[in-house]
Amino acid sequence: MDATLVIPTLNEGASIGHVLRSFRADAARANGTLFASDPVRWNILVVDGRSTDGTPERAEAEGATVLKEPRKGYGRAYRTGFSSATGEFVATMDGDATYPTAQIPQMLRQLIDEKLDFISGDRLSTLDPRAMTTMHRIGNRALNLFTGLAFHRFLRSIPDGRIRDTQSGMWVFRRRVLDTVVLTQDGMPMSEELKLEVLIRGYRFLEVPITYSERWGAPKLSSWNDGRRNMMFLLRKRFALEREIRGHSPAGRSAHG
Fold first, then answer.
1. pTM of the prediction?
2. CA distance 164 to 173
3. For tag attachment on the chain, is the N or C end more exposed, with fewer CB atoms within 10 Å?
4. Contact indicator for 177, 64 with CB cutoff of 8 Å
């Protein structure tokens, strides 16, 4: 079977080689065990946003296909990567060595075996406090709480009726999901936008706990500014959805086989 791994990067030269080597080794082991009867052929796409530290060159040296994306934004990089993804499945992770490469094949196996459409990694349930600043943890939990309150009617199909980690960037899903969801955000809000779109449109969604490590290099997030942008997006999304509901039954209420 064929799948694509999409990794957005911006000056991840110190870590991208390690991430790609780790993933290839973990994928090879999984092909000998979890996927022994049908090995996964991975297409690795690194979407680079004007790095100045040699990130694209290091990624290419490790065998990845590098897409240059001059437009700014974490979400923009993912949207560019998704448009070039091939195969039946898509996986994502960051290039800063925070996400566990070994869990991607495990998540893919679970997605297939349980006939799911989308699995998202939950960093917060087992989070090592050293891996995330206090302000970042507070911001994540505030966004999770607001999402649960604002979109509760669309979260009933998932355990506890809530998304435990709306900001996680590690996902494994069926590529056909991209044919239906509507992605508009170029920045960090794209992470929660994608999860909400998946749920609103009736896809089978699951969160699984993942390990999360300290990033290699300096953080790029601004807890206050990014948190404010995410909150404003959630408000706009909720009002837009309410208008859609009042006008007609949203497409998201139908299930997908």
1. 0.88
2. 18
3. C
4. no
